[in-house]
UniProtKB/TrEMBL annotation:
Gene3D superfamilies: Protein tyrosine phosphatase superfamily (3.90.190.10). It comes from the Bacteria. Residues 42-150 form the DSP-PTPase phosphatase fused to NAD+ Kinase domain. Pfam families: PTP-NADK (PF22741). PROSITE patterns: TYR_PHOSPHATASE_1 (PS00383). This is DSP-PTPase phosphatase fused to NAD+ Kinase domain-containing protein.
Length: 210
């Protein structure tokens, strides 16, 4: 009887421990939603997280610039204001650059995004949209082409999907952007400029776990 009772007790303790671990994992998922390191010390990604979480990420990873790809009012005016206050209070700057749904790499609405990715002073940077998936991946594909002179579509295929497939638009845009800019003179110049940026925080290595 005593042995059975102890076995039941240990079994219950094990179940409670696993439940606690599961609860912690769920909490971390919601708090740091879709946060990931794209390139350690240089480029990070996430969904739209709470203001205090964004401030924490800015400080922890030495972020200089946060790029918000959402449309004005997409998450409500209050959250947009809270994010700006949090980012600037943590010592970074916020660029609100709504990303258009286009497959045209020469769409003039992309000019601010290209300028942001091409400016060495913006790094390390964090890119986010509402869910941190499609628009974020499209912008990271632009980064891969402009700064690293890599294939944008192949880059998206290597990115985490966070349990969902990327939209066909992302692949189409990445293909078109690669053809247009991968071996351009501007891409070579952007790549060289950013490679020469020696900001000390860019040399740090970080894990995916925030």
């Amino acid at each position: 009887m005593g042995v059975d009772r102890h076995r039941r007790m240990f079994a219950l303790l094990g179940v409670a421990f696993l439940a606690a671990l599961g609860g912690l994992a769920v909490w971390r998922h919601h708090r740091y939603k879709h946060f990931a390191v794209h390139e350690a010390g240089r480029v990070y990604r996430s969904a739209w997280v709470e203001a205090d979480v964004m401030a924490e990420l800015v400080r922890r990873y030495g972020i200089r610039t946060v790029v918000n790809l959402c449309r004005p009012g997409e998450m409500g005016p209050t959250r947009a204001v809270e994010e700006r206050v949090a980012v600037e209070s943590a010592g970074a700057r916020l660029l609100e650059l709504p990303l258009p749904d286009t497959a045209d790499p020469h769409d003039p609405r992309l000019a601010p995004h290209i300028a942001a990715l091409s400016n060495p002073e913006n790094y390390p940077l964090l890119i986010h949209c509402q869910h941190g998936v499609n628009r974020t991946a499209r912008t990271l594909a632009m980064y891969e082409v402009l700064v690293k002179q890599q294939d944008g579509e192949a880059a998206i295929r290597r990115m985490p999907g966070f349990g969902r497939p990327y939209n066909p638009l992302e692949y189409e845009f990445a293909r078109n952007f690669t053809r247009a800019f991968r071996f351009s003179a501007d891409a070579r110049r952007f790549s060289g400029d950013i490679a020469q940026q020696q900001h000390p925080r860019m040399a740090e290595r970080h894990t995916v776990d925030p």
